[in-house]
Design goal:
Elements (H helix, E strand, L loop, with lengths): L3 E5 L2 H14 L5 E5 L6 H11 L14 E8 L2 E9 L6 H6 L11 E5 L13 E8 L2 E8 L2 H9 L7
Parallel strand pairs: 2-5, 2-6, 4-5
Antiparallel strand pairs: 1-7, 3-4, 6-7
The structure holds adenosine-5'-triphosphate (ATP).
Subcellular location: Cytoplasm
Pfam family, one: TsaE
InterPro entries: P-loop_NTPase, T6A_TsaE
Length: 161
């Protein structure tokens, strides 16, 4: 399957993509988010989690490294766990924190800065690449497993013209 690409001219387009992803994700999905500082990884994650029904704030878990949210996906209650591994000093920290057990085939795990968790981080179903481009963001989504293919197949998102 070809990667899905789009241009997100402003933050509202990022919010719309996050909402579309909230309707497309499936239990157990692992999403890696790649992009430089300020690329919009947290904005996209926040939009997804809030569109899945979380009413409170969603901040980047810079110091806690991970933050769970109880949400509804396809009418099913499950956890979305948001990771920001930027400040992790070594991949062992990921194991010592017990994060690997979170990847249980049910929780949806969204990982910012996955590079910091290699090689102990479970492999992704979907890889999202975000890049600053002009005033907006260029985004590419790649499916890397049957679950990822299913998610991108369910994704219904038309970027603004
Ligand atoms: N499509 C867009 N066009 C323009 N600005 C955007 C877009 N999407 C998000 N932004 C803005 O980009 C800024 C950085 O976003 P965000 O904090 O999500 O980045 P990040 O990738 O998580 O960065 P970090 O790795 O530093 O946590 C925010 O001010 C957000 O409003």
């Amino acid at each position: 399957m070809q990667p899905f690409t789009a241009y997100l001219p402003d933050e509202s387009a990022t919010l719309a993509l996050g909402a579309a992803l909230a309707r497309a994700v499936v239990p157990g999905l692992v999403i890696y988010l790649h992009g430089d500082l300020g690329a919009g990884k947290t904005a996209l994650t926040r939009a997804l989690i809030q569109a899945a029904g979380h009413k409170g704030t969603v901040k980047s878990p810079t110091y806690t490294l991970s933050e769970p949210y109880r949400v509804q996906v396809d009418g099913q209650a499950l956890n979305i766990i948001h990771y920001d591994l930027y400040r992790m000093s070594s991949p062992e920290e990921f194991l010592d924190a017990g994060f690997r057990e979170d990847f249980d085939g049910q929780n949806i795990c969204i990982v910012e800065w996955p590079e910091k968790g290699e090689p102990v981080l479970p492999s992704p179903d979907v890889r999202v690449l975000l890049n600053v481009s002009g005033a907006g963001r260029a985004v590419e989504l790649q499916a890397l497993s049957p679950q990822g293919l299913l998610c991108l197949d369910r994704l219904s998102f038309a970027p603004p013209p």
